[in-house]
């Protein structure tokens, strides 16, 4: 008798065929074949039900559940309890033993009760930033309390009790009246008049560099659409229509475009490049729906980020950017990247397999999805990832050099990775195809060589997290302004995300940077000195006063 799994290929397609087949087998007295057919149908229905249940649970979590991928130790232990195990196999004595499972001797010997802990009070207040302007106000004692109630003598000042109040000074508009000097020779009127050049940023417009910078910062850092900026300015008594703000922001982004282009050159010339992409809705009159799906590509390298727009998801656009690239490229396992790295469907590979790096975050996310779907076996993989990322956190906390980080990974991380993949390969053979856990193990197996390569050089990160964080700003802006007005408008968006994303990476105040750089570029800053205006170099200049919390606040 064939097994139920082997017989699935011969199963009837609909209920009428099933009934007919069962009647034929019963009439012929072929009881073993009939049982085999029924079992095959049940297995097929079970597998389909499992896959559909997982998809439904995933859809409900997307709508109502937490988006974070963080899994606490307590959650892992609950999943292990479902499996009837205290820890993953092979965990004894490994990196997983630190917090993945309780110690076996706990609870065997009665322990004296711990003394009660004192009640936790509120944490101390953080000091106010020292760089802020400080204004001192002396508060006198009221006149009625300045004399001694016992003898009537005037009280003497013996000091002050000092406290601090953080105040907010609202932004304000001001008009700068530019009076350009005119000179003429009283003896030689034929020489005409000499007039000083204007310091205006726009020939026909009236915004100063600070206002242009503010419009861009609110759009790209605060994700504020132009119509809301217009409403905000109206509260200050200044009427600026969204269309006017759009023209001004387009002008400012065109001014800053050379800086963004130079950032892209630096990024794409780096030894280690991380890449990902996201969609962008773009208005298109020639499209049947009136709107098309463009793409924003994000590349992180050389401690900078470059965003580049492509009008469609054709491999030739990012492939053109990577022509001549000789470093290592990190990305996820999306199948479409293969065509991109070949420059097309049949082109020569631009980045060979041995220079491609995988992303541990994407591998982990598949197991996270399976765990949220109720498969407790995924907790084993999550515990391994927890140990691996704990080692990475230790390397960063101790500020290890690239050589020391590589040594730490080889000594501590790789044994955990080996245990993880041994478990994955063994489990994968027993899983039902199409289920979330099977999808997770298959993805991990496909990415094994590329992800292991991350542990061969201390300069590499083990995931593509920085690019993911940069793309979140694009996603947030997209929710607010919904679409780009044209391909040119989408290209300008890429310029904005490039310059302000790079500012964020270096903790640079975006408003101060944009105000300074727009003014310098419009004043004729030499193109050969653009590197001095890039955020990493600008952050070291005297102009860049440190701003506490700037990198996080923006």
UniProtKB/TrEMBL annotation:
Highest taxon of source: Bacteria
Domain Transposase IS66 central: 205-491
Pfam families per UniProt: DDE_Tnp_IS66, DDE_Tnp_IS66_C, LZ_Tnp_IS66, zf-IS66
Region described as Disordered: 88-137
Residue ranges constituting the Transposase TnpC homeodomain domain according to the UniProt record: 52-136
Residue span, Transposase IS66 C-terminal domain: 498-535
Residue runs in coiled coils: none
Compositional bias of kind Low complexity: 88-109
Domain Transposase IS66 zinc-finger binding span(s) in chain numbering: 145-188
Protein name: Transposase
């Amino acid at each position: 008798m064939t097994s139920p799994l082997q017989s699935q290929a011969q199963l009837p397609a609909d209920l009428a065929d099933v009934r007919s087949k069962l009647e034929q087998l019963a009439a012929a007295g072929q009881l073993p074949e009939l049982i085999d057919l029924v079992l095959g149908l049940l297995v097929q229905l079970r597998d389909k039900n499992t896959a559909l249940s997982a998809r439904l649970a995933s859809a409900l979590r997307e709508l109502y559940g937490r988006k974070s991928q963080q899994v606490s130790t307590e959650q892992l232990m609950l999943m292990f309890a479902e499996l009837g195990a205290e820890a993953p196999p092979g965990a004894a004595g490994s990196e997983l033993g630190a917090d993945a499972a309780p110690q076996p001797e706990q609870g065997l010997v009665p322990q004296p009760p711990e003394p009660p802990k004192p009640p936790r009070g509120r944490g101390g207040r953080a000091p106010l930033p020292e760089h802020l302007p400080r204004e001192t106000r002396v508060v006198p004692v009221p006149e009625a309390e300045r004399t001694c109630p016992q003898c009537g003598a005037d009280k003497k000042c013996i000091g002050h009790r000092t406290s601090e109040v953080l105040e907010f000074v609202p932004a304000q508009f001001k008009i700068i009246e530019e009076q350009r000097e005119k000179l003429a020779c009283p003896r030689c009127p034929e020489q005409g008049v000499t007039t000083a050049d204007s310091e205006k940023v726009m020939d026909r417009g009236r915004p100063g560099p600070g206002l242009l910078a503010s419009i861009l910062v609110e759009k790209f850092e605060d994700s504020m659409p132009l119509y809301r900026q217009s409403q905000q300015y109206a509260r200050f008594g200044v009427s600026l229509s969204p269309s006017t703000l759009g023209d001004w922001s387009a002008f400012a982004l065109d001014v800053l475009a050379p800086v963004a282009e130079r950032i892209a050159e630096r990024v794409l010339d780096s030894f280690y490049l991380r890449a990902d992409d996201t969609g962008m809705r773009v208005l298109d009159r020639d499209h049947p729906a009136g709107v098309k799906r463009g793409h924003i590509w994000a590349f992180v390298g050389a401690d900078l980020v470059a965003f580049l727009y492509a009008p469609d998801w054709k491999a030739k656009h990012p492939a053109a950017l990577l022509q001549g690239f000789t470093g290592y490229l990190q990305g996820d396992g999306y199948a479409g990247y293969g065509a991109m790295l070949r420059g097309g469907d049949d082109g020569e590979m631009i980045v060979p397999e041995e220079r491609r790096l995988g992303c541990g975050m994407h591998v982990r996310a598949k197991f996270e999805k399976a765990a949220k779907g109720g498969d407790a076996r995924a907790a084993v993989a999550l515990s391994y990832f927890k140990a691996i990322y704990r080692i990475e956190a230790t390397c960063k906390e101790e500020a290890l050099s690239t050589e020391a980080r590589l040594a730490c990974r080889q000594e501590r991380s790789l044994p955990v990775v080996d245990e993880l993949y041994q478990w994955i390969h063994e489990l994968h053979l027993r899983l039902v195809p199409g289920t979330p856990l099977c999808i997770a193990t298959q993805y991990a197996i496909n990415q094994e060589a590329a992800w292991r390569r991350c542990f061969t050089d201390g300069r590499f990160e083990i995931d593509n997290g920085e690019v993911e964080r940069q793309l979140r700003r694009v996603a947030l802006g997209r929710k607010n302004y919904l679409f780009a007005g044209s391909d040119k408008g989408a290209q300008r968006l890429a310029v904005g995300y490039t310059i302000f994303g790079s500012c964020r990476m270096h903790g640079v105040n975006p408003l101060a940077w944009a105000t300074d750089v727009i003014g310098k570029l419009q004043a004729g800053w030499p193109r050969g000195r653009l590197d001095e205006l890039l955020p990493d170099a600008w952050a070291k200049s005297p102009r860049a006063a440190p701003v506490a919390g700037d990198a996080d606040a923006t």
